[in-house]
Amino acid sequence: xxxxxxxxxxxxxxxxxxxxxxxxxxxxxxxxxxxxxxxxxxxxxxxxxxxxxxxxxxxxxxxxxxxxxxxxxxxxxxxxxxxxxxxxxxxxxxxxxxxxxxxxxxxxxxxxxxxxxxxxxxxxxxxxxxxxxxxxxxxxxxxxxxxxxxxxxxxxxxxxxxxxxxxxxxxxxxxxxxxxxxxxx
Length: 185
What we know:
The chain is an all-alpha fold and 185 residues long. The chain has 7 helices and no strands. The longest helix is centred in the first third of the chain and has 28 residues.
């Protein structure tokens, strides 16, 4: 059963940048990030409604609404913020940086929730291992977001640059030759 949860978590994580890319393209068609996020949530709501109908399960709003604290109902607004932010970020900073930075934010909030046992999460104290993991994640975010171009200039043999990228024309205007056997067009 644990492997099923691992697969579910990995699949959900893999869908995040795909969803952001799709929604960013949609934003160009519907004139903005907020309309795109609205359409995304509308489609998601309709999909969930279909699943509930197929499963023969309803949502007992009449019973749940008066019995729940107000803040139980704000999760959707946090999701709306997240989706809108990814629609804005994806085309501007790239999928890798967007995921790295949102993951860093998610990890920071998650560790605080665990450390203080908030929102029903089990109490898991912040310790040295979590500190090391946080530092390593921060280093990864820094490398992914801020040093991508620097590394390819600093270590050209080890980090040749983006896959499929053409070499830049040097200041003299002479384009370096491509690999042997390949015609440049």
